[in-house]
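job 3f2a | input accepted
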Amino acid sequence: MVVLLKLRFESLLLLKVHLLTLVKHIVIKAELLLVELVYSFHVLHAFLEDLHLRLQLNLLLSLFIGILTHDFLQLLRILLLLFLALLQKAGFDDLVLVEELLDFLSVAVKNVHSLPIEF
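job 3f2a | predicted structure (119 res):
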């Protein structure tokens, strides 16, 4: 009987030690999970700050490119209008030259008939 009581007492002590160890283990696990959760929030916050900065830079770059593209297209339009004006001027000069050449030829043809041919 004494041995049985001793065994029971030892088993209760062992159970107490194991339960205390189990509780300490659970507490440590909970603390580690809390630290991991806080670290995850810090990582998420840093990621979102980085994403925010990249989106701002992307917006600024797209605005800059849009402004440059608009200015470039305006410049291209002005150059095209100047080129068309020069082309019209050159075309008009060519038409005047062709008209003068035709006038010269018609005068020459009329004069050829009025000139006597001597052999």
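job 3f2a | The chain is about 95% helix and 0% strand.
job 3f2a | closed
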